[in-house]
Amino acid sequence: QVQLQESGPGLVKPSQTLSLSCIVSASSISTDYMYWSWIRQPPGKGLEWMGVIAYDGYTYYSPSLKRRTSISRDTSKNQFTLQLSSVTPEDTAVYYCATAPRINSADYWGQGTQVTVSS
After folding, report:
1. Cβ(61)–Cβ(67) under 8 Å?
2. Is 73 helix (H, G, I), strand (E, B) or coil?
3. Among candidate residues 102, 107, 62, the one with its CA nearest the CA of residue 82
């Protein structure tokens, strides 16, 4: 069963760039028709899909976050990375990586990592 693990700093200062990695095991991020997503949940709010990188490297982003979001991958390390620029305290959330064989789904999740934006 595929396993995902988020890693990155738990505290980011306003205006900086948040960078998180998702290390994948028991599956390849290049596996045909698999999609690798980033999803977040701000405190007291619902889940928000941020974007996805497909098995072939194509990326798709939430329209509301597209201007500030970049998702990339390193196939040699079997991991994919989220970068969110110009963060504000409103970007404080638990960030999850997830995967599914459909572009807008998440069947397998990482445990999530808390990121706080504060000076």
Report:
1. no
2. strand
3. 62
